[in-house]
Amino acid sequence: MRTTIRDATLADLPAVFAIYNEEVLHGTATFDTVQREPGRDDAWLTDRHPARHPVLVADAGGDVAGWASLSQWSDRRGYDRTAESSVYVHSAHRSQGIGRALLLALVERAKGAGLGVLVARIADARQASVALHESVGFARFGTQRRCGEKFGRLLDVELMDLHLDGN
Fold it and tell me: What is the pLDDT of residues 74-88, one digit of tens each?
């Protein structure tokens, strides 16, 4: 089945949130502990600048197989050239290249928006996530030790970045 990467719409939010909420409830890819709900949390999609901070979905024959986004790194204006990347793939679609296709599309959108740096935070040094980011050029630059807690465990966060401006 062919997968198309496209901008997310409000109609995609139930599937996007279902993928995210799986990690909220059972994983450490996010430190969120409250599930997102369509209707209540639509501003997550509608209140962002779509060129600078897009949300993309991997559309597999009408089903959302995964999603990715660029988010504001900080509300301080001096960080406007930096965005945080997020990539989530439905468990039934992992190891099929969908995460990489989403991340590559994010990188291209970031370049087109004039961003200079993408940053990723990967909890618990999840090897698949680290390998995915390394495959498109991200490099590790530090570890935040024991900065998060979920499921009664203190967790480290691996920091990775990609410099889009060649420096």
Answer: 999 999 999 999 999
Sorted by sequence, the CB contacts under 8 Å of residue 43 that are 6+ apart come out as none
Where does the chain show beta strands of DSSP type E? Answer: 3-7, 55-60, 63-72, 82-89, 117-123, 139-150, 153-163
From CA 121, how far away is CA 159, in angstroms rounded? 5
CATH number at residue 108: 3.40.630.30
> Per the structure, how many domains does the chain have?
1
pTM over 0.85: yes
Mean of pLDDT values over 41-65: 95
* Of 35, 48, 42, 57, nearest in space to 10 by CA: 42
Residue 72, strand partner residues: 83
